[in-house]
Amino acid sequence: MKRNIIITMLILSFASTFAVAQEKKETGGKGNIWSRLSLGGYGEAVYTRNFYSDKYLRYTDAATYKDDDSHGRFDLPHIVFWVGYDFGKGWTLGTEIEFEHGGTESAVEIEEEEAGEYESEVERGGEVAIEQFWINKRFSRALNLKIGHIIVPVGATNMYHMPTEFFTNYRPEGESTIMPCTWHETGISLWGETDHWRYEVLFLPGLDSDRFGRQTWIAGGAGSPYEFKIANSYAGAFRVDNTSIKGLRLSLSGYVGNSFKNTLSATDNAKFKDVKGTVYIGAFDFCYKSRNLTVRGNFDYGHLTDSEMITKYNMSMRKDSPSPKQAVGSDAIAAGVEAGYNILALFNGKEVEHEKLYLFGRYEYYDSMFKTEGSIQDYKWCSRQRIAAGINYCPVKDIVIKGEYSIGLLDSRYNNEPSISLGIAYAGLFK
Question: What is the model's pTM?
Answer without folding.
Answer: 0.88
